[in-house]
Write a structure and sequence with these properties.
c-terminal domain of poly(a) binding protein; mainly alpha; single chain; 2 domains; 134 residues
Length: 134
C-alpha cells in the first residue's frame, strides 16, 4: 500500500501560516518554522494588549479629568463624588473629551458637582483663591 502524506493539505496549512506572517522581517516571514512562532507570539501580544489599551485609556481620561477639575478648584475624587451625588451619569471618556473640546460645558458640570457636595467636603485647593461657591 502506498504511503499517504496528505501533501496538499499540509502545504495549504503551511502557506496559510506564511501568508499570515507577511510583513514580518527576515526569516519570520519566509520560513514556516519561524513564521509559526512569530504568528503565535503576535496573537498572544495582540490579545494581551487589547486589555492593556483599555487600562491605559482609562488612566489617561482620569489624568485629564484631574487636571481639568483642579483647574476649576475641585480635586478629581471630590469631582467624581459630586457627579454621583448630582446623579450625572457621564463616563470618564465623555467627561475627558468635554474638558478638552468644550471647556464651558465642563465648567458647568463641575459647578453642578460642586453644588451637590456637602459643604464640609469642599475645600479650597492651595493654589486657588478663596472664592464663594455659586
Amino acid at each position: 500500500m502506498p504511503r499517504a502524506t496528505n501533501s496538499p493539505a499540509s502545504r495549504a496549512r503551511r502557506k496559510k501560516v506564511i501568508a499570515e506572517a507577511k510583513g514580518y522581517r527576515g526569516r519570520r516571514s519566509k520560513l514556516f518554522r519561524y513564521a509559526k512562532d512569530a504568528r503565535m507570539k503576535a496573537k498572544y501580544w495582540a490579545y494581551r494588549d487589547r486589555k492593556t489599551r483599555k487600562r491605559f485609556f482609562r488612566s489617561l481620561w482620569i489624568l485629564r479629568l484631574n487636571a481639568a477639575a483642579r483647574a476649576e478648584g475641585l480635586p478629581y475624587n471630590r469631582f467624581i463624588q459630586g457627579l454621583k451625588l448630582a446623579n450625572i451619569q457621564l463616563d470618564r471618556k465623555i467627561l475627558a473629551d468635554l474638558a478638552i473640546s468644550a471647556p464651558e460645558t465642563f465648567r458647568s458640570i463641575v459647578a453642578k458637582a460642586r453644588q451637590a457636595l456637602p459643604a464640609n467636603l469642599i475645600k479650597i485647593l492651595p493654589h486657588q483663591k478663596a472664592t464663594t461657591i455659586p
